[in-house]
Amino acid sequence: MSVPLKAFLLVIKNFTRGKNKRDDSNSKQYGHYGWRDTENAREVYLDALHRHFMAYSTGTTIDSDSKLSHMVGVACNALILLDLEEAEKEVNEVQDGEHPGDDRPPTGTNFDSAYYRIRQRVLGPAAD
Questions:
Q1: What is the SS3 string spanning the chain?
Q2: Alpha-carbon distance 128 to 112, whole Å?
Q3: In sequence order, what are the residues at sequence separation of 6 or more whose Cβ sits closer than 8 angstroms to the Cβ of residue 64?
C-alpha cells in the first residue's frame, strides 16, 4: 500500500500552522476541531475548498497566506468537510439511540495512539 506521505505532512503542517509561534495572531488556525463549531461550516469550508482549487487551476500555485500549495488548502478543506460529514453521522446515530462517542483525541494526545484509534475505527479490528 502506498501513501503520499509528503502530501500528508504538508496537510499536517497547514493544520498546525502557527502553533509554535510567539505571535498568536495565526496560532492554531483551526483550533482543536474548531471547524465543527463554525457557523455554516459546510458552506464556509466548501467555499474555501473552491477558492483554493480555482486559484490553483488558474495558475496561482502558492497560497500567499500559508506559503504552501493551494492544493494543500484543497486537501485540508476536503478533510474538514469529510470530518463534518462523519461528525453529523455520529450525531444522527446518537439521536437514534446509539452512543458512538466523540472521536476527538484529547488535546496533547500522542500521535501514535490517535493514529491507532482512528485506524481501528476506519479499518476495524482486522487492521491489526
A1: CCCCHHHHHHHHHHHCCCCCCCCHHHCCCCCCCHHHHCCCHHHHHHHHHHHHHHHHHCCCCECCCCCCEHHHHHHHHHHHHHHHHHHHHHHHHHHCCCCCCCCCCCCCCCHHHHHHHHHHHHHCHHHC
A2: 14
A3: none
Which residue's entry shows cell 473552491?
A: 50
Buried-exposed string 12-34: b where 16+ CB fall within 10 A, e elsewhere: eebeebeeeeeeeeeeebbeebe
Residues 14-59: tens digit of each pLDDT: 988 865 544 444 445 666 778 888 899 999 999 999 999 999 999 9
Place of cell 483525541: 105
